[in-house]
Amino acid sequence: MPELSLGTCAAALSLVIGLSGCSLLTPTVPDRSVRRLEFLARDYRPEVLQTELREFTVKFTSVVEKAADDIEASSPDPIHKRNALRWRIQAVPEGQLAGLRIEPVAAMLDMWCLCNQMDEFLRTGAGAELFGDHQRIAIDASELLRTSVEAIARGALDPGYWTDTANEMRSWTEKHPIESLSFTRETILVEFAEHSTRSEDVFGALGSIEEIALAAQNSASVYATSLPRQARWQAELVTEDALAEATELVDDSMSSMTEAFTEEREALLAAVARERTAILADVDRQRLDTILALQEELTATRALLSAERVATLEALRTEREIVLAAVTGEREATVRDVGEITRETIGAVEQTMNRIVDRALRLLAIGTATLFALALVAIVTLRRARAA
After folding, report:
1. Phi, psi dihedrals of residue 195, rounded to the nearest 5°
2. 15 or 141: whose pLDDT is higher?
3. Does residue 180 come out as left (phi exceeding 0), alpha (psi in the -120 to 50 range) or beta?
4. What are the backbone dihedrals phi and psi of residue 97, each rounded to the nearest 5 degrees, phi first?
């Protein structure tokens, strides 16, 4: 969207004023008009009501704008920020359209209706969750505007009309709520026009063309102040929409890239799986071949070892037999030698024993003779001793 300059806003404002002036200077009114004075309290001038409504319209704009700014500043959620921007973009022009009507009673009723509809919309209606945890900011703003416009209406209306009008306003608002942030709504003006008992000329209601021109001028000053901000809000919304579209395009692109990457990844994984299967099959074949070769080598080795073992055992058996034969011969020769030595030793021992026995016998005989001689000497000695 091209940037809106102050010249463009001024041109648009001039067009609005021009169109409004044409309609204002056309002295024709419907048969059933809400431009009537019987609603107003005694001694309450329409000019005062018109001034109050113009000031309230400015207040309406500032209250909605501030509440929207507070929500945008407080909420981190981009959806809530966007809803706040859309709220003031739609609500502010509706408030100006209602409050700046040329006929003051119609303006009061339409503004009162709008404030009630907006309060219900934000409090319990379709807009009750537009701002999440910051909904209370919008509700407080709408409640302030509703009570303010009711105070204006209570002061302006004749006491005889106040109760019925307030009840009718509440009942009508419940039946005709605002359904979305587009603020498409029905007004109560037709309803009150149908209850009108008489119609009056617009010039009779407002007094003079000069007063109409002054009202139009005051309305134009309000629009001149507000239109640049509204243009900026619209530009912000268009920028956000453009960014959202760009983000959506980027998301779509990323989604397409992700899908392509996913497809490539799946194809790569499938190829890797196939290669892995082929490699595993080849490894299995090689492993089986290796196992078979090892089994053959093991069988051949076992056969060779068995032959070597048999040959070794046979050689060992032969060697053992030879050794045993040699040992047996040696043992027999040794036994023979030992026998001969034993016999020789026994012979020598027998001879030695014989000599020893002979000597012992001779010694025994000598000893016996000696003892016998001593015994005889002893006996002789004893006898001699007795004889003496």
Report:
1. -90, 0
2. 141
3. beta
4. -65, -40
